[in-house]
């Protein structure tokens, strides 16, 4: 094979045909300049051309593989171009042809992203948390994107698990349900009974959830990111799109996506949350069962519970339970934000379960029970730098005090590369919004609605906001919205105000939170 590769390489270099000449040139480049590729694959680098030619088949295979990848990428780009053409063509007229036309366009965007694949579905869900970049109605439509996907075969699930843990399925699980409980765009979940965590060491059977990544997801997302990066780089040369800083947004989104695709990273997030909430009796997370953790497979405890929407929308009465849920949610979020600096950034109702602890009296168990909250799907998290964290706390202080100028000035500090064309006009408009909020007419307006208006001003004035900061703000708004439904009398911002002004030093907030709000 080595001699054939050498002969082909020299024969092509002497050919008078254009295409073989180009191929020979590329092979020569691979042989002489791609030292890092060989080292990455574990090959030693040699200065002798003949020794390079000995590995010619490796370079040839790598080149052919890259050529195939390029063809697949081009075909994917053509498909996406056709798919997104209707949305792009309708976009300039979305605000001009009336409300019905805009609704049609929004529905078109929704359907297009669902058909485009997991990377674009996740991008839509991520974009829904960026009202500083996109209109409110578009964010609402993107938030409804469904991550349901066709389930892959049980044979693939079995093969993936056995390959990940180098053990047969029956050597790990006592029972394994072939039909998945749920299937998302990244992975699907099976219910099983675990009997062996370590080879040959039988344990008491545990009901577990086994999350298995879909085949080809990583490759599909990687290709889509190549295209998204290309679009972001092109947008930096378009003056009207430059302020969006799509390249930075794509990088932030890439980190989020890697957390979703790499199930081992999600297990690490779970372990960190479990440690942070180790003293809390009414908040918990699924527990990853090491060593059964792999980038493509995650085994964790199966958590029972009712979706929190049951208590928000369906359950009538039971004011005590609803009020307790509102308090638990607020306390948990503020602990993540102010104490741990590690925030669950995907805290929508679908990722929150509620179960009731048993009461003493069997006939009044619902009233004697205490709610327990379980947070799921912690792939998407946010951490803030020290400066951003201080700015965010000052921002919340300003909102609590209804100080529009301070809120606007802190918002302008939420990006290292602020490119707002007219900061003074932004400050004035935010001040006007806060003045109307503090007036008699604005008494019925909630703090969340006021912050939504502020984010609308951010978008209108093209103010740059760091993605993690915006994610934290939007998570607070999402939590505040369903907590207001649970307990209309409970004021999240008032609780935040009491906390922030109880002790003005950020360093002492650990003591404040643990002392005032720990269960």
From TrEMBL:
Residues 145-409 form the ABC1 atypical kinase-like domain. GO terms for molecular function: kinase activity. InterPro entries: ABC1_dom (IPR004147), ADCK2_dom (IPR044095), ADCK_kinase (IPR052402), Kinase-like_dom_sf (IPR011009). Keywords: Kinase, Transferase. PANTHER family: AARF DOMAIN CONTAINING KINASE 2 (PREDICTED) (PTHR45890), OS07G0558000 PROTEIN (PTHR45890:SF7). This is Probable serine/threonine-protein kinase abkC.
């Amino acid at each position: 094979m080595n001699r054939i590769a050498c002969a082909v390489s020299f024969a092509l270099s002497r050919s008078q045909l254009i295409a073989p000449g180009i191929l020979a040139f590329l092979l020569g480049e691979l042989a002489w300049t791609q030292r890092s590729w060989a080292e990455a694959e574990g090959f030693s680098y040699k200065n002798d051309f003949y020794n390079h030619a000995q590995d010619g088949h490796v370079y040839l295979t790598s080149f052919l593989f890259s050529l195939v990848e390029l063809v697949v990428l081009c075909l994917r780009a053509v498909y996406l171009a056709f798919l997104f053409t209707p949305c792009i063509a309708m976009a300039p007229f979305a605000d001009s042809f009336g409300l019905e036309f805009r609704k049609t366009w929004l529905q078109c965007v929704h359907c297009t992203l669902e058909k485009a694949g997991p990377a674009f579905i996740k991008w839509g869900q991520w974009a829904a948390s960026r009202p500083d970049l996109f209109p409110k109605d578009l964010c609402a439509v993107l938030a409804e994107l469904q991550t349901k996907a066709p389930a892959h075969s049980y044979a693939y699930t079995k093969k993936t698990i056995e390959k990940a843990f180098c053990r047969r399925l029956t050597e790990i699980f006592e029972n394994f349900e072939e039909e998945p409980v749920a299937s998302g765009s990244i992975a699907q979940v099976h219910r099983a009974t675990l009997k062996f965590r370590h080879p040959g060491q039988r344990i008491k059977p545990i009901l577990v959830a086994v999350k298995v990544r879909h085949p080809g997801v990583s490759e599909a997302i990687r290709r889509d990111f190549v295209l998204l990066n290309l679009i972001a780089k092109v947008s930096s040369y378009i003056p009207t799109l430059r302020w969006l800083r799509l390249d930075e947004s794509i990088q932030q989104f890439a980190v989020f996506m890697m957390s979703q695709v790499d199930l081992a990273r999600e297990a690490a997030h779970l372990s960190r949350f479990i440690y942070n909430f180790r003293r809390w009796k009414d908040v918990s997370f699924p527990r990853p069962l090491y060593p059964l953790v792999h980038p493509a497979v995650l085994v964790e405890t199966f958590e029972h519970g009712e979706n929190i929407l049951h208590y928000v929308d369906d359950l009538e009465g039971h004011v005590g339970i609803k009020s307790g849920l509102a308090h638990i949610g607020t306390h948990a979020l503020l602990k993540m934000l102010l104490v741990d600096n590690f925030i669950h950034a995907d805290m929508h109702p679908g990722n929150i379960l509620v179960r009731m602890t048993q009461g003493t009296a069997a006939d009044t168990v619902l009233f004697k029970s205490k709610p327990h909250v379980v947070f799921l799907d912690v792939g998407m998290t946010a951490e803030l730098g020290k400066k951003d964290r201080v700015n965010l706390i000052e921002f919340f202080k300003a909102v609590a005090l209804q100080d529009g100028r301070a809120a606007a000035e802190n918002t302008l500090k939420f990006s290292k590369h602020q490119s707002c064309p007219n900061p003074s006009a932004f400050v004035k408009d935010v001040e006007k919004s806060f003045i109307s909020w503090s007036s008699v007419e604005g008494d019925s307006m909630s703090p969340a609605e006021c912050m939504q208006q502020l984010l609308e001003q951010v978008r209108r004035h093209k103010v740059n906001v760091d993605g993690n900061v915006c994610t934290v703000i939007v998570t607070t708004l999402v939590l505040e919205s369903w907590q207001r439904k649970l307990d209309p009398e409970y004021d999240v911002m008032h609780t935040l105000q009491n906390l922030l002004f109880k002790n003005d030093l950020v360093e002492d907030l650990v003591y404040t939170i643990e002392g005032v709000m720990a269960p």
